[in-house]
UniProtKB/TrEMBL annotation:
The keyword Amino-acid biosynthesis does not apply. GO terms for cellular component: plasma membrane. PANTHER family: BIOPOLYMER TRANSPORT PROTEIN EXBD2 (PTHR30558:SF13), EXBD MEMBRANE COMPONENT OF PMF-DRIVEN MACROMOLECULE IMPORT SYSTEM (PTHR30558). The chain crosses the membrane at residues 20-38. The gene is exbD. Pfam families: ExbD. It comes from Pseudoalteromonas espejiana. Coiled coil: none annotated. This is Biopolymer transporter ExbD.
Length: 134
């Protein structure tokens, strides 16, 4: 009898970890799905100073224009004609309504306008925000 009683006590002392692991995995999936990833242009630009600069929230697309006219999106150099196609592919991954344009203060105005035209050609609902140093 004593042996049967000891076996019953050991059986009751076991804790089932399955429900806790289920909850941990569900929380992990929730955090992965709800996380938004920020994409950057991939290069540092010497932006002009801005007195009235404001921070833009929920912007996922950054376009950088260097002083030599090189255009960078998502750490890749892109031709002016390919800007619209690149933005469309980024919008398919993560929809947004704001595109941040970071132009070097020595960049030519014509290049900046061409990039802005390409952004507008992607969709009328996109807003262009020009980045400046504060």
């Amino acid at each position: 009898m004593a042996r049967k009683q000891r076996f019953r006590e050991e059986e009751e002392a076991a804790v089932d970890m399955t429900p806790m692991l289920d909850i941990v995995f569900i929380m992990l999936i929730f955090f992965i799905v709800t996380t938004s990833f920020v994409k950057e242009a991939g290069i540092e630009v010497n932006k002009p100073k801005a007195a009235q600069a404001t921070k833009q929230k929920n912007a996922n697309i950054f376009i950088a224009i260097r002083s030599d006219g090189a255009i960078w999106i998502d750490k890749q150099q892109v031709d002016v004609e390919r800007v619209s196609a690149k933005i469309e592919s980024l919008l398919a991954e993560q929809p947004t309504d704001v595109v941040i344009l970071q132009a070097d203060k020595e960049a030519k105005h014509g290049t900046v306008v061409k990039v802005m035209d390409q952004i507008k050609a992607t969709g009328d609902n996109l807003r262009i925000s020009i980045a400046g140093d504060q």
